[in-house]
Amino acid sequence: MLYKHLPLMPILLPLTGAMIAVLLRRNYRLQTGVALASMVISLLSSGWLLVVVWRGGGPLVFQSGGWTAPFGITLVADLLAAVFVVMSQLVLCTGVLYAMGSKDSVVRYPTFYPLYLSLATSLTGAMLTGDLFNLFVFAELLVISGTVLTALSDDRHGTEAAYKYYYMSMLASFFMLLAIGCLYVSYGTLNMADLAQRIAGDSGRSLLLPGIGFLMATFMAKSAVFPFHFWQPDFHTAAPTAVSAMLSSVVVKLGVYGFLRMTTLLFLPQAETIRFLLVGLGIIGVILGGLSAVGTLNAKRMLAYSTLAQVGFIMVGIGWGTPMAITAAIVFAFNHSLIKAAMLMLAGYVASRAPVKSADFEVVSGVGREAHGAGVLFFLGSMALAGIPPTNGFISKMILFSSGIDAAGFSSLLLIGLGSVFTLVYTMRGFQRIWWQGPPAGGEVKAKGDQLLAPVLLIGLVLLLGLWAEPLVQIAQDTGLWLTSPMGYIQAVLGG
Amino acid sequence: MELLTAIAIGTMFAVGVFQLLRRNVIRSAIGLLILANAVNLFLLSTGASVGMEPPYVSDISGLMSDALPQALILTAIVISMGGTAFVLSMLYIIAARYKTSDSDEVDGLKH
Predict the structure, then answer these.
(1) How far apart are CA B20 and CA B14, in angstroms?
(2) How far apart are CA B92 and CA B90, in angstroms?
(3) A229-282: pLDDT as tens digits
(4) Could you report how far apart the first and last alpha carbons of chain A are, in Å?
(5) Can the peptide bond before residue A390 be classed as cis, meaning omega within 30 degrees of 0?
(6) pTM of the full predicted structure?
(7) Which residues in A lie closer than 8 A to residue B20 (C-beta atoms)?
(8) Which end of chain B is more exposed for a tag (fewer CB within 10 A), N or C?
């Protein structure tokens, strides 16, 4: 087994980087270099992992400590995990680039990069692990790093947002522990492959349904799906730009990943019920998020509400549940991460040039008059968010809607079609407020803001994946195919 | 014994949820702590009532107790301890910035 340790790399590299960055806390430049280098190497290793898994035709499994499957902690890189890891690492890399050129004082704190790298570690780890309790531990690390990064924010209200989020996440982790307890007492295992096999064999245990409910609540809170969404706009508005671009794009995808695993691996006998719920909650998210984004008065907050709507689209895709719809959900999740990170970085750039550092429309309207390059980028990002060619947003919406026609979910299709009109309304309104109105009344627009390198890269990818979408769609299609046969995953983990 | 454990855990959940929903931020932090312990007791009860003999010893007579829930609780306790310390430090900053201990008045982000 040549590639035996490969699934470990995307977790270990950022973790090592975080430790080295803690040691280098007195040398800011060196610390930045270490952070960027470890993220880039880790992105390369996860890309390598994706290629190996895709070419190899089966999941790569690493049994940590050499313990065989149901007893030790297993890391499983199947195609779904590999695609999500590549997506996360890609966006996290551009986040480091943005932080390097940011004028926020938070990026100068010696703890910023270690926390950022531990965020990367935990997100990757949560996606690669094959053990429910290990998933809980990584999710906790993710919550703590995200909360501390937000509490450090330049925004005066950062601590308040962090406080709200932390309470919500503590409740989510209690839900997860309860789910783990329910499943463990019913089936005596926490290994996901073993659990899936046992649940498929005997789905009548009385504590199974509460376990599913608690796990759903956990992932809903993680990805801000409708009844658990209220922390999200505050949290994503008050976080430092480099961090909020990550939180609102890749970190919410942990819940998406969890729902994909729940409906295609863990709870196959109950998958229909879960899917039915997801379609309903997704539609509510699309409409509610769209309406709230139209009504809000802050550019970053608008984009945070937009995440609520876009995650709703992904939930509807998972809910339809056909291989084509799952393909659409994966493509949508990948593309949305790139678009939303770029848009939030641009909103942060505009806020950094405003007379007072804030993304309120009152403050930033007219700021874009002297920033034409950022205007073009924001316009392209808006088009991608609304799903207009030649951007990747068009590809994801097209696949999603055509899969909806195939799955014959016409009423839900109509409702999310209506919801996607709101996207055009709020992005264009934001564009007009910032780039078309007169300069702000109180004070001068600053000559220099944050660096635009990271959003340029992301929008470049948005265009590239809009014009040359075949590789991504092909990988997502293969992932959808893999997910329809969970026996491959179970056999790779348990052997035999 | 099982009934007693169930009632005790249920009571702790009730007290924890009630305290968590209090407006005073310190009280709600205490609620979070009580809730964390209730969840830990629930995890303990998943392995407590079957088998009373300690595992991993040489001469075992009877049914072994399950050690895994205890390992899970140990992890959860460590995490919740760090979390509580962090919540309290955040509350310290919030109390200094907003000059209040009433969570309804911590609303600077309301738009």
Answers:
(1) 10
(2) 5
(3) 888 888 888 889 899 999 989 999 999 999 999 999 888 888 899 999 999 999
(4) 16
(5) yes
(6) 0.93
(7) 167
(8) N
Helices A410-431 and A299-320 cross at an angle (nearest 10°) of 160
Contacts of A167 in chain B (CB under 8 A): 20, 28, 32, 87
Predicted complex ipTM exceeds 0.95:
no
Instruction: Report how far residue A402's alpha carbon sits from residue A404's, in angstroms, rounded to the nearest whole number.
Output: 5
Interface probe for A, chosen from B63, B74, B79 (most Cβ of A below 10 Å), is B79
- At A381-429, the pLDDT tens digits run 999 988 888 888 899 999 998 988 888 778 888 888 888 888 889 988 8
Q: Where are the domains of chain A?
A: 6-480
Residue A116 is encoded by which pair of tokens? 């950022």
Instruction: Give residue B24's identity as a one-letter amino acid code.
Output: N
| Alpha carbons B34 and B23: distance in angstroms, whole number | 16
For residue A384 the two structure tokens come to: 């991608």
Using the CB atoms, write b or e for A461-494: b if 16+ within 10 Å. Answer: bbbebbeebeebbebbbbbbebbeebebbbbbbb
Q: Report CA dihedral (A30, A36, A40, A41) to the nearest 10 degrees.
A: 30
Distances (CA, A) of A406 to A402, A410, A416: 6, 9, 15
Sorted by where each starts, the structural domains of chain B and their CATH numbers stand as 2-53+64-104 (1.10.287.3510)
Question: How far is Cα A456 from Cα A459, in angstroms, rounded to an integer?
Answer: 5
Number of CB pairs, chain A paired with chain B, less than 8 A apart: 79
